[in-house]
Fold this sequence. Notes:
Bound molecules: zinc ion
Shape: elongated
Strand content: 5-15%
Oligomer: single chain
Structural class: alpha+beta
Amino acid sequence: MSYYGNFYYKTPTVGELQAKARKSIERARKKGVIYDPIVVPGTGSQRKLCTNWWGKAWCANMEQYSDYANRLPRGQRYCRNGMVIDLQIEKGVVHAKVQGSDRTPYDITITIKPLSQKAKKAIQERCEFGISSLETLVAGEFPKELQDLFTAKEGLFPSPSEIKFHCDCPDGAYLCKHVAAVMYGIGIRLDQKPLLLFELRGLDPKSLVEKAIANKLESMLKNVDRPSGRILDAQVNTNELFGL
Ligand SMILES: [Zn+2]
């Protein structure tokens, strides 16, 4: 219980917050809006948020910045308890809704600067000639041969100077617990769908895969001493192959 001005404010329990979250999801559904909540599998307050390289790398990247250190643990708890009831990753921006003590969930927007042209070009060039790396990547695993590329200073993981937050809660802090919860939520989403990180940083994952396949076909055809050609469209359905 906390004392605010003339009245006592009872901090809601996790169970109460979860009930509010379920109601918010249901209210949106009745209006025809389907939320995409962040779910951390398993039970227990210490269970891992991420299990794959991508999610772990996203979380490790933000945890190394002291600017974020104070608020991150509360955000982690919020995320684990299912308070991030909607999270959408798009090019350069993440929109999310986080359930707090109010009836209406808070709206959070996280804007991330797109990669520089130079960094984009470096990633494109390396991916275009590494189809096996891309296969590993699309399968949710991590292509070790591309590690330096992704974790370099101008790699796929953003630094605080490239990230801007906004939350409509009354907490005046720049990085409130709702924003922190969404930052972990992004890691969990990337754990399941790593190609969204490419999209978030302004790269088109579909075109990367298509170019990699085209280059692979071309080099294969050269090897069998036959003329190469523009046979990609006719023979390879990249959507089916990679589930894009
Ligand atoms: Zn907030």
